[in-house]
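So, could you explain the following?
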Amino acid sequence: MEGWFDIVYFIGLGLSLLSSSIVLIILLRINFKDHSTKLRVYFTSIDIGSTIFLAIPYLPYKNPIYECVYNAMYYFIIMLHGFWVFFISFFLYMVICRKNSKVKKFTTPALLGFILISFIATIVVLIIPGNGKNCVILNTNEMMIIYLLVTCVGFEVIVFTMITYFYVQIRKVIKDEFLCEDKKCTRNRNLCLRLLGYPILFFVLLAFTELNVVQYFYIGTEEGLILFQIRILLIVYYPCLNSMLYGFTKSSKKFFCSLLLKAPEYTENQELLNDIRQVGFIKDRVYMDLADLSESDILD
């Protein structure tokens, strides 16, 4: 990886690490956390971990086993990310559409379960017998293509289908609820566009994951190298895109500005808004975030 690719690669690493770190600070410091905060804390932690992991190929260490472990970790991160994107959409669907809050207690167990499943699925890359190489690995093009079609493409198509359904249903419910509260709402036609952004962003990941399969038809060629570089660059910038969509909501941006400006009146407003929220006069923050609104606008 040389020249322009190195520059764009490290810029992406820097942007992803910076944006994910800012989102994590906001989520940990924000006052009066809602039930979606833990979801986003875990998601941002996955993004930070993947960003740090993606810098590993630049460590000066050449060894077949090292390369095999790196490949396995790459697929582990992709799969864990897919599972968590699915769980976030399922969680919000249950809370907002089904009015079922029992799902809240399964957040941490779900993460641990997804880590275990992803580990089992990706360790296969290391344990299936090879052809006498130092590292036991899926080491033929045919074997890797089948593996990728099942664990990456097939898996992500299912996740994409499910999250699209969940977010379309969530969008309908939130639009209806806001419309009931304000029948003259002129924003209703454009309300909740952020919700459509979640499956669209995941679709982008899906499209580029397919390049991983195509790449194996061009092993050892210049075209294969270009496909590899495009795929890796998307993965590098993906945590930054996640941060923009999942983390930098209107309310979180206002909170971050208050941290930078050290504005005490913001904290006072949040205390007042929390009291109003507790008696049911305004929606929970997660509703406002998904609708791309800020509860602070009420006091502006």
In short: The mean pLDDT is 78. The two ends are 50 Å apart (CA to CA). The domain at 4-248 is CATH 1.20.1070.10 (Rhopdopsin 7-helix transmembrane proteins). The chain has ten helices and no strands.
